[in-house]
Amino acid sequence: MYMINLKNTSLKTSIKEYFLMAVGMCIYSFGWVGCILPAKCMGGGASGLALLIYYLTGGHVTVGVIVLIINIILLIIAGFIVGWKFGAKTIYCIVLLSVSMSILQHFFTLPDGTVMDIFHLDNRLLYTVLGGIFSGIGVAMCFIQGGSTGGTDIVAMIINNYKKVSYGKIVRFTDGFIIGSALVLPQVGIDGVVYGFLMVVVFSYTVDTIMNGNQQSNQIFIICKDYVEMADTMNNVAKRGATVLDATGWYEKQNRKIVMVVCRRRDTPMILKIVKMVDPDAFITVGSVMGVYGKGFDALNKA
Description:
The chain is 60% helix and 11% strand. The protein is α+β, with helices and mostly antiparallel strands. Strand 2 and strand 3 form a beta hairpin.
């Protein structure tokens, strides 16, 4: 019975994930098209490279289309080098990012070809900060749901196929190279490059702040009638690891089994629903843990 309910829950979860990724990509696109583009500053990643090409070509092709072309080229290269193992969410986010950028740029572009000053701030610094915040929120929403905007992620995948290099180093190098290349563009100038580095800092801080809050983990202890069924359900249905611990109930002086599950905080409601479906009378404790390292969680070298 609970298997049917779990399938419905899984479908609802998938719909929710794809919806939130769509919202995240729209927010990310707004940060670039509505804030960074009017400020005539730069940024990193595939979007920053697309903006660089956009300026070089005189703005005849929308940034969204250029982003899509860049990601398609990177996907093809990565496919031949590391294999065609890209998730549906990554493809979904890449396509949606291109579409949302193109639509927003169409609506925000004035008849003379300039991008609309949406907030009427007339301040490049404020637009740069807002662009970093909006794009950071959008990317974090995408990452939390398991998606990816491509770009630097694909580059990191290709590089790590030959040599293990940290993701942070790859981001810093690629972003620095892309932003620095804009020095030759009169539309951007030195101040636009400086604002570009500021945008990356704000963007990174925003993503880290949201992701760190979301990546916290919980440790769940479950005392139930049938620990075998509970542990199997955690493995096969919830797709989470389970550990069975020996315990003694001191009130009744009886030996019991405790099913321990460690999961991300965002997955806790799902785990509790599954426990309720398997055994409504189960005794459960949920506690926060400072750090979890190993498969499915953080790498041990981050400790």
